[in-house]
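Researcher: Good morning. I'm working through a list of sequences from a screen, and I'd like to move beyond sequence-only analysis. For each chain I'm collecting a predicted structure so we can compare shapes side by side. This is the next one on the list. No need for commentary yet; just the structure.
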Amino acid sequence: MPDQPTPPTPEQPGSDKPQRAKPGFISKDLLDAIDLAEQCQREAAKDDTAPALAERDWTPADQTTFTGHIQAAHKLEQDIHQARAGKGSQSDEETAAKKELQHALDPILKGARFTFPDDEAQRTAFGKGIANASGADLHRYATYASQQLTGTPPKIKLRGVIAAEIQAVADLAAKYKDADWAHTQAKGDASELLAKLRALVEGDLQTERRNLQHAADLAWTHRDPVNAVQRKAFGLQPDRPLV
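Model: Good morning. Structure tokens for this chain:
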């Protein structure tokens, strides 16, 4: 039965491996795969292992390509973390814009209640229940208010509501829409980057790591206990073949 690679060994103090967040948006299986690839790459770069690997068709060019893909994986990790951090700040911006819009709609709703005491449909259209309304509902109320209360003459005149309040609703509706779009865009960016990372890890990185492990499996046979430490360094079982 084909053997499974051993998990990567823990990083030693003083390692130059970049710090990363705990597994979450990027799954543990992807992070472990990158760690194992990097462990094998570091071992293959040593002066006392590279010649033996070269004899088994793991060339310096292969090592260079493999190293570049590992670096690309780390760059994608960083880009994902930055996109996720941006999502958090943009979410805060969206929340603030929603609160501003909610407050700006207060005089509009009060004016609608007073102007249309017996017209439930109009009071609802202008924002009945804004205290618990979603951002999308608040934006819909603001859009309706802008359409009905602006123009010369306006389609509807709400008693006591002034032009500055109507304009504020229009301006804050646009601000909320921009913040909501930025939040959605950040989530999309992070997801796209994650898809690229998974494709890199499950494609080039995994294939190259297996090629390197195959060379190590041949160079340091599992039948000799003396090779146990060296095999573990390449993520191989000490007493079983790779395949």
